[in-house]
Amino acid sequence: MTVDPDCLPGARAPRLLIDLGNTRLKWVLASGREFTAPPGAMPFDLGRLPWDVWCSAAPAEVVIASVAPDPARDALLDALATWLRVPVRSARVEAEWQGLWCAYRNPEKLGIDRWLAVIAAHDADPASAALLVSAGTALTVDRLDPGGRHRGGVIAPGLAAMRAGLVAAAPGLAVHGPGEAGGSMATNSADAIASGCLQAALGLIRHAVQDMLDEGLSPSVWLSGGDAPLLAPHLAYDLRLRPALVLEGLAIWAYRSAKTPSPDVD
């Protein structure tokens, strides 16, 4: 990889926001707290990242949120330092952040992706309850009560991980191959496995919503992750389908946490 010596930030340069997950990387350029273009997403491969695009944008800084293993995160940070030569900040979870309270006794143990989803929902409507659902490699569900009180969450396997775990435990099921997931009873084993995984995920979400309803709260359900389109048709709630929810939260965190906000403000 050859670095362009003219890759330098301008006076009104954007921020480059990066969400590094377990298998994929999402990114977007932001001015203030607003995206300047649609986000991008791709498998994480250092050699295939859009370095030319990022360099041409000449960002003033990079802000990263990572739940990837340390070696992957460190490799990305090294490459960013080589290519862009601008400050890099890493988002972090805190016990209290600008009117939000984390439920974890050890806040640093909460995944930053989950915290950023909470930030995005709270920023949109601080007085309302919300349920934050990420349906990816893992299925995570976090509860946010009115007034910025994060109440914790649950983590379960995502749809693909459920099926993989089932087949690993019962190898004979592998012969059925992928099936079509639905919300009712299936009439063949391939569809039964796919539908069972889907309905297990839906049951987890519905249980969390019902707990909140039983306490007199009416939460909006914020849904993100690669499997969100499979879940959404089966969830009859105040549903917010937000594929870039973590990046939305990262934009807010980056803007509000900066010592000096970028000149392009709200």
Count the beta strands.
13
What multimeric state do the chains show? single chain
Low-confidence stretches: 1-6, 260-266
Give the class-level CATH name of the largest domain. Answer: Alpha Beta
Mean pLDDT over all positions: 92
In CATH, what is the homologous superfamily of the largest domain?
ATPase, nucleotide binding domain
Organism: Pseudofulvimonas gallinarii
Subunit structure: Homodimer.
Pathway: Cofactor biosynthesis; coenzyme A biosynthesis; CoA from (R)-pantothenate: step 1/5
Family: Belongs to the type III pantothenate kinase family.
Architecture overview:
Pathway: Cofactor biosynthesis; coenzyme A biosynthesis; CoA from (R)-pantothenate: step 1/5. Homodimer. It is found in: Cytoplasm. It is a single chain. By secondary structure, this protein is an alpha/beta fold. The chain has two domains: 15-90, Nucleotidyltransferase, domain 5 (2-Layer Sandwich); 127-243, Nucleotidyltransferase, domain 5 (2-Layer Sandwich), CATH 3.30.420.40. The chain has helices at 51-57, 70-83, 112-124, 159-169, 189-214, 228-231, 245-257, and strands at residues 15-20, 24-31, 34-35, 40-43, 61-66, 88-90, 96-97, 100-101, 130-135, 138-145, 149-157, 220-224, 238-241. Strands 1, 2, 3, 4, 5 and 6 form a six-stranded mixed β-sheet that branches. It has a five-stranded mixed β-sheet with strand order 11-10-9-12-13, with helices on both faces. The chain has a two-stranded antiparallel ribbon with strand order 7-8. The chain is globular, with a radius of gyration of 20 Å.
